[in-house]
Amino acid sequence: MMQKDPFNQQLFEFLADAPTPFHAVYEMRGWLQQAGYIELEEQNAWSVHPGGRYFIVRNESSIIAWNMPANSDLIDSGMRMVGAHTDSPCLKVKPNPETVRQGCLRLGVEVYGGALLNPWFDRDLSLAGRVSYVGTEGNVKSELVDFSRPIAIIPSLAIHLDREANKDRTVNPQNDLPPILAQLHGDGKAELRQLLKKELAAIDIDDVDEVLDYELFFYDVQKPSYIGLDNEFFASARLDNLLSCFIGLQALLDSDTDQGALLVCNDHEEVGSMSAAGAQGPMLKQLLERLLPDSESRNRMIANSMMVSVDNAHAVHPNFTDKHDGNHGPRMNSGAVIKINANQRYASNSETSALFRHIAQQEGVTLQSFVVRSDMACGSTIGPITAAEIGVKTIDIGVPQLAMHSIRELAGSDDPVNLAKVLSRFYQQASV
C-alpha cells in the first residue's frame, strides 16, 4: 500500500541522486534488480519466459522494463505500457570549454532543450555526467561521475551596472552563461579533462590513462524539499520528467500483475526524441519485434495494448491565470491531468480518456483536463510519437506543476502517490 510521505521521501532521494539521465537510469536499474528483474543485453540472444521480469538499457540513458504475462498469451493480453522521459532542460558542457577571463576559469556551455535561463544565475552548481577514457591496458571504458559539491556559479551582473535588468533582461547563452569554476593565479592552468581524471581517481577508478570524451551537465545542488505551511508542495530540479519516471517505476513494482506490463523511459525528449535512445527512435519497436518476431502476432498484441504517456502538465499559475483557458486550469493537489489537443500534439482521445477516468474512479482519485488556450501554441510529449511509431492507442497525462523547465520546479505533494496508484491499477487491467 503506497503512502504519501514514504513515497515522497523515496522520490526526493531519487531526484537528488539523478542529476543526469545516466544517473537516473543507474538508479532505476538498481530498483529493478532489487525487485528481481533480469537485465538483458541487446547484443545477445534472449530467452524470456512466461511470468518473467526483464529490462534493457540503451546508451545508459534510456530504459525499458517489462513483465511477461504469467497465465495468458502475450498476443491476447497485450501490453499495459507507461512512458516517460529521463532528460530535462539544462546546461551541457562544450567539447573544448575552457576559457580564462580576468583570471577566472570558465566553461562554455550549450543550452540543452527549452530551458528557462534566468533562474540559472546565482545558483550553487555542480557537474555530473558520463566520462569515456582509455584505460592503462589500452581499452576504452565509460564511467559516471558526479562532483556532488558546489564547484561553479553563474553570477548575475549587479543592478548598478544594468539599471534596466528588472525591466527588460535578456540572456545571451554564448556570452552570459559560462559558469565560473576557479580563480587562477599567475600562469596557472586548469583543464577539464585533468579535473575529470582526478574525480575518477576519487571514486577509485585508478586505471585512467587519458580522458577521451564526456557528456557533462551542470545542475543545482539544492536538494528537493517540501514547501508550504502544511507541506502542500515540493520543489526540486528535474521534476519534468524524472517525477514521471519514478511514478511509473513505483507503479510497475507495486502492481504485482500477471498481465503484460511495460515501462519505457526514453532520453532526448526535450530535444525532439529523434535518436537511437529517443521515443522517435526504434528502441521500443525493436523490443516488441524481439518479443514477437511474427508481424501478424505483434500487430494483434499491439491492438490489445495501451500506452499511458506520463509527462508533467502546466498547473494554473495564480499570478498569471490569463495564460490558461478559463475552464482548463489544472490545480496542484487536485489530481493528474489528461492532456488534450485537437491537432494531435497530445495523443489522448475520448476512448483512452474514458478508460483512464474509469480506472482512476476505481482508486478514488480525481483527474483534471488541460487544453491550451486557442491563441497559444501547444507543446508535445512522447505520446504522439510512440503512437505513430508503433500504432498503439495512447493517452497523455501528467502531474500538474509550476515553473516548468526552470532550474527548480514546483508540484503538489499529494499528486505523485495518487497517480502511482492509478497507474498500478492500470498495469493490472485485464483488457484495455
From TrEMBL:
SUPFAM superfamilies: Aminopeptidase/glucanase lid domain (SSF101821), Zn-dependent exopeptidases (SSF53187). InterPro entries: Peptidase_M18 (IPR001948), Peptidase_M18_dom2 (IPR023358). Belongs to the peptidase M18 family. GO terms for biological process: proteolysis. Pfam families: Peptidase_M18. Its cofactor is Zn(2+). It comes from Amphritea japonica ATCC BAA-1530. CDD domains: M18_DAP (cd05658). This is M18 family aminopeptidase. Keywords: Aminopeptidase, Hydrolase, Metal-binding, Metalloprotease, Protease, Zinc. One of its GO terms (cellular component) is cytoplasm. One of its GO terms (molecular function) is aminopeptidase activity.
